[in-house]
Fold this sequence. Notes:
By secondary structure, the chain is mostly beta strands. About 10% of the residues lie in helices and about 35% in strands. It has one domain (about 15-100): CATH 2.40.50.140. The model has no long low-confidence stretch (mean pLDDT about 95). InterPro entries: CsaA, NA-bd_OB-fold, tRNA-bd_dom. This is Secretion chaperone CsaA. Pfam families: tRNA_bind (PF01588).
Amino acid sequence: MSLKNTIDWNDFEQVEMRAGTIIAVLDFPEARKPAYKVTVDFGPDVGIKRTSAQITSLYTKEELLGRQVIGVVNFPVKQIGPFLSEFLIAGFYRDDGSVVLAIPDKSIDNGAKLA
């Protein structure tokens, strides 16, 4: 396996990865690939943010509600069709292209920063 780039610790410290709880999931029929519009509460310091996520093949809307996830919250807003994505939900690609969410394995406060 080859890594794309080596970064230093200061680069990593600039990435704001926070825990949050999914509070709403809607279909995103305008997306080119199947996706949901996901709303996450990242606590009082970060607030509520929305993103588009291509996670429909492994997760239903119902099972995502209330689940804690990890998100990169300091990216600039990105236009995805008619939708503004405000953060990146973290996950891992499988060989078939589906995405498995990166999630905390114990409950933590919304807004907790990745250590």
